[in-house]
Amino acid sequence: MTSLTRAQTSIEELKGVGPETMKELSRLGIVTWEDLLWHLPYRYENIAIRPVEELEHEAQATLAGTVQGPPNVKYYGAKKNRLFFRLFADGHLIQVVAFNRAFLKHKLQPETKVNVTGKWDRHRAQLTAQRIEVGDADETRAYAPVYTITGKLTVRQLENWIKQVIRQGAFPEEALPAFLRKKYKLPTIAEAIATLHQPENAQTLKNARRRVVYEEFLRFQLNIQAYKRTRRQNEYAQPTKIDEASIRQFVQALPFALTDAQTRSLREILADIQADHKMNRLLQGDVGSGKTVVAACAMYAVVSAGKQAALMVPTEILATQHAESLADLFRPYGMELARLTGSTKTARRKEIHAGLESGEISVIVGTHALIQDTVPFHDLGLVITDEQHRFGVGQRRALREKGNPDALFMTATPIPRTLAITAYGDMDVSRIDEQPKGRKAVQTYWAKPDMLERVIAFVRKETAAGKQAYVICPLIEESEQLDVQNAIDLHAQLEMLMPDNSIGLLHGRLRDEEKETAMNGFTGGDIDVLVSTTVVEVGVNVANATIMVIYDADRFGLSQLHQLRGRVGRGEAQSYCILLSDPTSETGKERMRIMTETTDGFVLAEKDLRLRGPGELLGQKQSGMPEFRLADPVHDYRALDTARQDANTLLDAEEFWQHPKYQPLRDYVQGSGATSGEKLD
Ligand code: ADP
Ligand code: MG
């Protein structure tokens, strides 16, 4: 900032602000005129004047009229009082009641013009006032701002000070170049702020909001993108030389053709691997979208360039499954693959360590056992983390620090695009937003528990036709506190109810061999029905399973239900998901309805976000999620995306670093530390 703008003037320099009020204002974070201007209303009241005939009983309404006869005040104790007066408004005589407004009495002389906003009681023809504007109110105003205030401050004072600053024209510096304002039809910052405090109509209010939101996002994105670029320059990495032709062959040898989205994601990943900076990429794709095979291609690329690749997964089951399917893919190329988990025996573990150290083992698949200090690598080129949200930030970092490899994080949590931009601000994001061809959407039904017999009949019919089913319940064994289904009892019950079927049991408390037996039995088709807790939630892939029954489904969040449902519908046959539940809460019911209405993970994520808020969806508080004054990354996601693109275009342009019209934005970016590679707040 070259010189202080007038907006930086202290609030001292306002009529009616003394030491006391300064203290109160500073508690609201208001020290300068600019702070005052940014103390925006948190909502607006609709004060459009309406004819009496149109008012609805018990709804809020605004009437304009004149005072009839003298007002009356009743006092209750020292501070409480009630003010009454009669209002003549378009031909009707209305009673107005207002609490604790005795001070208005002398102003409400007969024939005085007033606008009153309040709750309308049709039977009594009475308005209980929240807002009384005395005198010639501007009758064209449709909205009244509502502000947060504290202590002894009054809304009147606040409005008055804001008006003083607006009248002086002491607005913050205009940061948006004219061409951008023109492109999006945005008002100037002065117009926008004035409107936000004193909106004339819905349209100008909307535009003022758009303006502020866009600028907030643009600043945010300029920061993030500038930071990314700087870090990239600072983090030079020896590029990995990959052999395109050999990768093409590997892809062609796959049992299916990659979808366009898979191809696009793979191309983005390979570009990172070949670039002279470290990959730091998030691969997002709904369950079943085929992330694993993309990961396999990336691993193949790195290994054929002479380096090692590691895949870290959250559970033993998943480690086993990935290890097996990857081994099948890599075997023809003579790539040595090993699996390392918590249950790997000491002797085998030593062998694996030796193989990793010598470079003999080129691909390692494992759980967090992989990041234990003692695991040595010869030349680790790529680390992939599956279901990355299941790992703590620390665990992920630990693996990355083993030789600073390229890092790819995979997630099936369909974080809305824009939220991903904010939450994972400094990561690049690839999205597989398309399912392999021929997949049929899973048909989802919500059934009350008393329909169990019909559900079982259906499962028997499907299994008789050679299909398999999962039955999921929340608990492992009976609980005294919770009246919900448990896996052990249900397993016993189903064995009785389905004598012709072979029923398996899987839960977290089984020994590893038992888990493996159950899982292998199901994968191999010897088990028809697998009763399980949510250990099968992530990644497990059995294409012949077409039924997913979820007991007490309302106990799970939408994202988790979606993950579970994603275990079926992996082959060509029609699959079904049956939610057994009788929720008592409204959100529980809402969740069941949403599940039956959509199979789109991104739609579900948006809804989940609205039901639960971003904090819970993202698990822990993620860095890079700033607080905005007005902008809401979920609601305003289009603006966020636009701002991201614009930020990149600006940063790419030579002109941005030179032309005076970019001075304010440039100062902002350079002042934030983004260009010097310091960590952003
Ligand atoms: P997720 O993204 O949930 O991890 P997976 O990688 O487990 O999905 O893939 C789900 C299933 O889809 C696997 O059986 C996989 O072999 C298969 N698959 C992946 N890509 C394709 C494709 N392009 N065409 C057909 N099937 C595919
Ligand atoms: Mg997966």
TrEMBL record:
GO terms for molecular function: 3'-5' DNA helicase activity; ATP binding; ATP hydrolysis activity; DNA binding. It comes from the Bacteria. It is an enzyme of class 5 (isomerase). Its EC number is 5.6.2.4. CDD domains: DEXHc_RecG (cd17992), RecG_wedge_OBF (cd04488), SF2_C_RecG (cd18811). Residues 451-610 form the Helicase C-terminal domain. This is ATP-dependent DNA helicase RecG. It comes from Salicibibacter kimchii.
